[in-house]
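Following the same procedure, the fold was encoded as tokens, giving this record:
***
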Amino acid sequence: MEVNTMHNACDDMSAAKALSKQNRVTIIIELAENGEPMWEGAINGCIFRIRRGEPVEVPESLAKLIAYNAHAREAAKAAAEAYVKYNGKRL
């Protein structure tokens, strides 16, 4: 399995050093429903752009952020399902 690289830009060099010292994990970010090919996020001023659907090595804290982001997106989707499914909902 070929592991791709991520693209990042960091304004804070101390944050960049801290991230570079972290253990790396290989992840694959699932494809977006809207077709967006890249996942974008930031940690302490370091901005990351990662291609979806391809294995990539990332710092452990970034992998946790991506997992939290996916969990929050699914929770929001589930909470809104009743409103979308029934074309609104009486409160």
In short: The two ends are 50 Å apart (CA to CA).
